[in-house]
Design a protein that fits this description.
The structure holds 2 protein chains of 2 kinds. By secondary structure, chain A is mainly beta. Chain A contains no helices and 11 strands. Chain A is about 0% helix and about 55% strand. In chain A, the strands form 2 sheets. In chain A, strands 2, 4, 5, 6, 9, 10 and 11 form a 7-stranded mixed β-sheet that branches. Chain A starts with a strand and ends with a strand. The mean pLDDT of chain A is about 90. Classes of the chains: A mainly beta, B mainly beta. Chains A and B meet through strand 4, strand 5, strand 9 and strand 10 of A and strand 5, strand 6, strand 10 and strand 11 of B.
Amino acid sequence: DTAVSQTPKYLVTQMGNDKSIKCEQNLGHDTMYWYKQDSKKFLKIMFSYNNKELIINETVPNRFSPKSPDKAHLNLHINSLELGDSAVYFCASSQGRAPSYEQYFGPGTRLTVT
Amino acid sequence: GDSVTQMEGPVTLSEEAFLTINCTYTATGYPSLFWYVQYPGEGLQLLLKATKADDKGSNKGFEATYRKETTSFHLEKGSVQVSDSAVYFCALSDQAGTALIFGKGTTLSVSS
């Protein structure tokens, strides 16, 4: 069974469109995250949710809006896509917020904006 | 703010060579430290972790020791294999446990 899954795996779209990426975890974890990996492989936190509540919102354009319908899901909606949004987006989850908890990552969604 | 610095790659080694990937950190308090590995086309997997000073994390022949005095968490393996070829990320967890802060990643390429 896949622990953290994301759909779609690949997403190719044009500038100006709106798209969503879905994430689900079946680990029973309380905390979920979105990270962005740029073309140089640098990973940066975007959002962090604990028990469906937003606890981190890094300097991310407000075109990006996370939504957590329940503890097992954290979706990412992106409005008015721009070329610079092209990246790999990773969802992750952890048992809680303690610093010692490891994070489990999904396989990533490669977004290409043309 | 908190940050992680790891050696620039790529690192190219022959099979059975010794591997060291350097990682140093800057953080307030006592963060937990992690090494994650990313194989081509895949997500990140935890390789090992250490949660307090002098802890040694180990897994699959890889080791790293949490050195508070030098703020380092260097990754080592005595004998690398072709299957170890991947990108390795050093990371720390901020004190609130709200995010991982990653280094820039080091690409390892092992040839037979």
